[in-house]
Amino acid sequence: MQTLSVFSNEHRRHYLGLVFGLLAAFSLTAICYWPSLDGPFLFDDIPNLEPMGERGGLISAEQYLEYIATPRSGPIGRPLSLASFTLNAKTWPADPKPFRISNLVIHLVNGLLIFLLARRVFSISQNQLTADRLALMCAALWLLHPLLVSTTAYIVQRMTMLCTLFTLAGLLCYMRGRNQLPANPVRGWLWILGGMSGFGLLALLSKESAILLPLYALTIELTVYSAVRTSTRHRNLLLATLVSPLLIFTSIVAASWDSISSGFEFRSFTLPERLMTEAVVVVDYLSQIVAPRLSGLGIIHDDYPVSTGLVSPVSTLISLLIIVSLVGFAIAARKKLPLVSLGVLWFFSGHSLEAGPFPLELYFEHRNYLPLLGPLIVAAALLLLVKQKMQRILLFGVALFIVAESLMTWQSASTWGSESRFMRTALIEHPDSQRAQQFYVNELIVSGRYGDALAEQEHLAGKMPGHTSTLLSILNLRCLLNTLTARQVDEFLGRISSSNYDLQLVNYLPVLRNNAFAGTCSAFGAEELHDLFDSLLSNPRISANNIALGAILYNKGLAYARSGDLDLALLQLDHSFDANSLIDIPLQQTVWLLEANRPLDAQQYLSLARQHEHQPIVRRSYRDSAFEQLQREIARQLAER
Question: Based on the number of CB atoms within 10 Å of its own CB, is 607 exposed (0-12), middle (13-18) or buried (19 or more)?
């Protein structure tokens, strides 16, 4: 295998060119993403960042640890990702620009790690000069691909980016240790086990998709390392090391399947429909990678068509055949064409989790952030298979592709940099998207254009009559315009009692509660508000969801408290706690009872909060100051008796 002497002119020219190429790719990436840096917070940014402003901001260790330890986006809470947000702000509202700059920096770091990993992969079968050039090509194509804009420019997707960063670091450790196994097994295993476990843990604390780290390593082991001579003992130990965590994860999923599958009750698709649709989605991703198109890029994809059968639509069957053919070819060719096999298996391994049987949303571009490397490795491998003259022509084509994707990335980033442009684009490209319509209506409401917002919502309700959030939004807007009649209230209550569950409906409950008590809507007061809550509770599609049920009962309790009926308020919050055991519920009840000078009853609820088993341990422990303050007030009231 050809190597370059560190003292040769060829060596210096090569590495100077390599450094220049990387700097050029980084600079072009920064230029392309620059228009996005002035963009606003969007969608999931707000619920994940807004808690930083609770109780005056993250001004103490208690508040800081409470913020990062409270699960918001996944079962383990993603505390490392949340901690990274506190580097940009410690209160709310905040300036989004530092968050966006940090995302861009992480994207550039990931681009460097992509280069280093690809360099190691190619160097197994190619000389160092060729490996470096192919790795540089992959890194540039990856950094500038427009499909990654909705990851880098979407602040909350730092979770995906950090998980990718630590996954890549873990894979680099794996490959370094793997290369050292023949000569120094002890050091090799230290790199493999230490790097995989250490960086794997950091990746897992960033996002749950870190579980794919051993699967990525397994694809490398079964393809490019298949031709590397390794003792049977080491090979078996390697396979056991990589397969074991995947089997453990599969066992956990199987044991928890009843709980996991219950999420399909609140989706508009079944498990078989999701799996069939995901076949179409993954092939759609692949087509976007090979031939990127500017239209349709972004985070609005809730209007993606659901496959209800193998030929409904026919693209479902075609997509399944494409996937089976590609995976089958990759497995069969893993020894003859290891790089091609790695690229194909890498892509599908990267989608195996979020395109699998979990009740997640159907389509998100950020799921391609690391899997995108797979098709790029395939492109590099195919380049090696053609003659040198054809390689020059193809390299010129790659250069043109980089220019084209850079222009599309800049254009897409420009859309992210303007809230109004983002909104208009989403409406044009996704006219049937509830999310896009709600986003537009919210902007109209913020600007005081209630009439225009009402017209938009009524138009959407005509197309989607069973969408609960739209019905609640119309009710709210008619209240704000004071055009709501008693007859319309009755009509809405009837429709809501049989409408569909959706995630956004709980956001309208406090708004409608405030309107009912503000006295600005003559047809919607406290009595009608409780009728609305009862209609929601009588709807089996809504009340079957514990989060929605808890929120409805909680708001119903707050309404009773506002009316001065403390006992009914306490009862509703008891039911809310039974549905969704949040520690804030007994704490609110404790505060109410202290305000009513009922310290003995307050003590019972404070004790319930202290014994709460479903709250994360860290958050529980760092609520001690609030507990002690309430305990002192209880003691004071008891002493005065």
Answer: middle
